[in-house]
Amino acid sequence: MCTSIFQTAKNGQHLFSRTMDWEGLYAFPTFLPRNYQWRSAFDGKTYNSRYALIGSGHAVADRADISDGVNEHGLSVQKLTFSAGKDHFAQSRKASYTQIAPFEFPLWAMTQFDSVSSLLAALPTLEIMNDQEAVREYGEADLHFAAADPTGRFVIIEPLSMPMRVIENPLGVVTNAGDFQKEAAKLADYMTLLPEYAAGRLPYNSQHVSTGDFFWKKAVSRRLYTQCQIHSRSLFKRTHDGSCRRTASVSRSLAYFKCCDCAEDASSLADLHSLPFGSRT
Questions:
Q1: How confident is the model at residue 256 (pLDDT cuts 50, 70, 90)?
Q2: Does 80 share its domain with 181?
Q3: In this structure, are residues 152 and 117 in contact, taking their beta carbons and an 8 Å threshold?
């Protein structure tokens, strides 16, 4: 599963990284200068690069494919495998639109725009095309896209409609899932989210989306901790009757688990929540 990760450092600088989980990759360090000209696989139209970029991909003559990169203004765009977009690609040629193959979107975006906002302003005039009327077949390239820039804005761009759908993403993470908003909503099962995040008002460059409270959240202690195999930051040794001496790693958020050796409720032995990280009993 490919994953994009966007992080903001304490000094305000940004790191936009990704995994690319393929058995074999045809992607290499690639530099494209200003005024590089490339031809679209869809209609053969030639585009002139306004901005230079460096990234991962390949370029041969006037054919280029960029998986991810960053241009001279700091606009960074990545493409990731998707599972819900190909049925929404446009099919027919329209002279009034910019029409490109799905895999060409990062190349088009980074060579033509200097920020996320300028890129998004151009989306209403863009269509992602299947290869039904293409000059060169490229198959069903089911992709969606992530874009970020030095302002700290991070968005997901999904071809679930034309114009494409834009999702603001303060989480800083996106995978291949077909419904990002559904996946993001599941976070509430595992952590208490900041009110600003829940209301959609979390500002760019925020370091956290949660309050840090994981108390009694789903799957924290109800399944994993029963196995006494979970590593975290606190160690507790249970010696209530001298028969149970296995050391188990448990976190501060643990409310209840079974002791592996004697199956006695560990929550009845000590108030684990009152113990600071690193303490021992």
A1: very low
A2: yes
A3: no
Q: What does the CA dihedral 151, 166, 35, 71 come to, rounded to 10 degrees?
A: 30
Instruction: Domain count for the chain, please give it.
Output: 2
Question: Which whole number is the average pLDDT over 173-182?
Answer: 85
Exposure string for 192-226, b = 16+ CB within 10 A, e = fewer: ebbeebeeeebeeeeeebeeeebeebeebbeeebb
| Same domain, yes or no: 168 and 67 | yes
Query: What is this structure's pTM?
Result: 0.76
Q: Taking a C-beta distance cutoff of 8 angstroms, is the pair 144, 82 a contact?
A: yes
At 150, give phi and psi (nearest 5°). Answer: -65, -10
Query: Does position 154 have pLDDT exceeding 90, yes or no?
Result: yes
Decide: helix, strand or coil at residue 180.
helix
Q: Are 142 and 86 in contact (CB under 8 A)?
A: yes
Alpha-carbon gap, residue 217 to 209, rounded angstroms: 16
Rounded CA separation 39/279 (Å): 63
Q: Which domain range does residue 47 map to?
A: 4-189
Are 125 and 18 part of one and the same domain? Answer: yes
Helices then strands, each counted (H, E), the chain = 4, 16
